[in-house]
Predict the structure.
Amino acid sequence: MTHTTLVTSIQESTGKTAITLALGLLAQDGDETVGYMKPKGTRLQSNVGKTLDEDPMLAREVLGTDAEMHQMEPVVYSPTFIEQAIRGREDPDELREIVAEQFEALAADTDHMFVEGGGSLTTGGIIELTDDEIAELIDARVVLVATYEQPGDVDDVLAAADRLGDRLDGVVFNLVGEGDHDELENDVVPFLEGRGVPVHGIVPRKQDLAGVTVGDLADELAAEVVTDVPTDEFVERFSVGAMGADEALRHFRRTRDAAVITGGDRSDIHTAALEAPGIKCLILTGGHRPPGAVVGKAADKGVPILLVRTDTLTTVDRAEEVVRSGRTRDAETVEAMRELLADHADVEGLLGH
């Protein structure tokens, strides 16, 4: 009898892929044969006319499975597909049947199937295939991945738990900042468990999993690096320098692990950014070279300057995409997550043992 675990999340970008695959590795450590499926492909990159989701491709590499892509990802949940579904050109019953068939085929020779949800718990409602509906269809127990920044986030956890009902096996809090850990452990977890929602782990935010290095960012943005300083600092967020210099300095001082994106001709903003300790690099747009004094000051402070030809808005979009898809998409990240779960979660509970 195959054991099935579906990993879902309240919102996107919570580390769901890394957790799903790390659980697969942990199950393999326990000598289980493992399969993977992501019924709705949502992280799409167009690939020679076929749209492939990056997560099943990573699953093949990490878990060593030789399943076909169309089995692992039976529904390509692309913008075009969604438009067609809204126009009534996709039959939910037919799609359910396809998902069930492919699941059966993949589960046939495995001890434990790991099924990754769509973008979030409610993705797929248009075709009546939200993650809770999929769990029902393939008889899965569900692990819910949540993040935590403030007590109000518990509302979302309770709503998701309510929706999943008896299928919910437990919650894993991921990407938890140091400052939030104690509140979660001492107040939130006992509260949730008192409401019948088990918590299987509190996984800390690890910077090398949460951000990208300045060097990686430069490569991805095809930027010219005009300073000769190390580029191994991590960037997690971006600050756009579009205000006056005094206001910019106040704003930059409040942010950490950030890159400032601004026009190459705004030397007042460049100077303000170089005064703030949390700014890890400057990304200057529009192909303008900054004045020599700015480059000299950046070199003294050890802050890299990246030069790109695109305008500020395009650069912000691309940079955020790089950080969002970040490092969670490689085997190294999954390995790091396996260790984090082993240290900070009840692995036996998560695997349903």
